[in-house]
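Long-time lurker. I teach an intro course on protein structure, and each term I like to show students one example going from raw sequence to a predicted 3D structure in token notation. This year I'd like something fresh instead of my usual example. Would anyone be willing to generate the tokens for the chain below so I can use it in lecture? Attribution to the forum is fine with me.
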Amino acid sequence: MNAIVPGGRSSSKRWVVVIGLLLFLIPLCAPPAHAQPRLVVRDSLGLSGINLTCQLLGCNVVRNLGDPQGQLFLVTFPSILNPVTAMLKLSLQLGIVDAEIDQVVNTQAAYAGPAPSYLTDEKPTSYYGATVWHGYVAQPANQLIRTSTTQA
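-- Reply from a regular --
Happy to contribute to a lecture. Here you go:
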């Protein structure tokens, strides 16, 4: 009563193989998710110079980084371009002073504590003919190196 349909078993095996191949090949076809390389660039020609350079190289000026001289910029390149290659291309352009890869860094938190009391001790004190704050004369460094002994 178990009728074997000709080709039925091989047909199901074929479907399993096809589905397995698809599951294997789909991740290989998807483009990898890469962030665009970000470079910090100093251009002596300013914003107009870096804009012209980016038109030639296919990069994008994201923003000025707040340099008082207006020469420091954050630039991105297409993700298919290696950041080192991008830096080399940029460094050969007119006006480019320096370029480096923008890196994320983590810093450790630090707590300095409250300011020492002698920093705010503004009582006028005579010190070798000049009037200075008492906190300047009474700071621990002067006591450690025995300033008063050497000046006597």
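Some talking points for your students: The chain is about 35% helix and 20% strand. The mean pLDDT is 82.
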